[in-house]
Amino acid sequence: MNVWIESHSGFVLDVVMEDTEFYQQIQDALIRQVQQLRQRPRIILVTKPELAQVLHPVTDLLHIGIAVMPYLPTVAEVRQGLTEFMKNK
Amino acid sequence: MASFESRGELNAEDLAVIKTLGLKFRGKQRWPLFRLFEPGFPPWAVDGAQTRFLTAALEHAAVITQAFEDRPEKLIEQPGKVLVRVHQAMNRNARWVGQWRPAPQPPEGPPVPVPDTAFLKQLANQVTQGEGIVETDFFYMPAAVQRSRGNVRMGRA
Predict the structure, then answer these.
(1) Residue environment code for B1-14, b if the CB has 16+ CB neighbours within 10 A, otherwise e
(2) What element of type H or E holds B101?
(3) For residue range A32-68, what is the model confidence (pLDDT) as tens digits?
(4) More confident call, A45 vs A82
(5) How far is A81 from chain B (nearest CA, A)?
(6) ipTM of this predicted structure
(7) Which helix (H) or strand (E) is B155 found in, with range?
(8) pLDDT of A8 strictly over 60
(9) Distance between CA B135 and CA A30 in Å, rounded?
(10) Residue-level pLDDT at B148
(11) B66–chain A Cβ distance below 8 A for any pair
């Protein structure tokens, strides 16, 4: 695994890994969050069917709902923030 | 991909090639631009082999364009099929013909990892049910990461 970091801010730009390893990281991130909060969310919303497929084995066992939505406002806000951040670099 | 752009869209190398070839272009959306588009990578200049392939593709596209100029609807009237140019060898002669073939399917993605079922069942019993709604996504960063000359990729967030 290779991690690319923006030299001034320390912002993680990229984590280069095999696709299966990338999928594993996504599943692990959800599991870690549930472990840390000791609480499962009611539902996880995603925009990509591919991401729903990756998360489904975990959400199914943890009894978390999952749904694919065409637009997610918070994700859109984060993407816009990243765009603005990179523009100023 | 080949497209016609304004001069400002071309870089110094593009302009140098045009100058070397003695070509002249004027006006907006009149300057030819050739770029390689690959998922995870920013648009990049085409190399020799890609240029030869693109040249052949444009030649065939011109043939199809002329053939269907008066009836473009014919190009989309067979759902699930695409018109493919096929090279046919006939004795000592060879020719290109058009054939309708099934549209290629996208390749299957990598397998989804199977989590530790016993561990997750145990975890499900240890945590409480919340009312939270979580939005999750992954996407390419709006920035390129320079690994080495000729090998630039987009970051993934």
Answers:
(1) eeeeeeeeebeeeb
(2) strand B93-102
(3) 999 999 999 999 999 999 999 999 999 999 999 999 9
(4) A45
(5) 10
(6) 0.80
(7) strand B151-156
(8) yes
(9) 11
(10) 56
(11) no
Say how many C-beta atoms besides its own lie within 10 A of residue A54's C-beta: 26
φ and ψ at B148, to 5 degrees? -160, 170
CA distance B17 to B12: 9
Bridge-based pairing of strands B128-129 and A39-40 is parallel
Q: Quick one: pLDDT at residue B31?
A: 97
- Map tokens 């996208």 to a residue: B106
CB-nearest to A61 from B121, B141, B156 is B121
Confidence of residue A7 (pLDDT cuts 50, 70, 90): low
Cβ contacts (< 8 Å) between B151 and chain A: which residues?
Answer: none
Chain B nearest CA to A30, separation (Å): 10
CA dihedral of residues B29, B30, B36, B40 (deg, nearest 10): -10
Query: For tokens 């004795």, what's the residue?
Result: B91
Kind of pairing, strands A43-46 and B133-136? Answer: parallel
Q: Which helix (H) or strand (E) holds B145?
A: strand B140-148
Q: Are B15 and B22 in contact (CB under 8 A)?
A: no
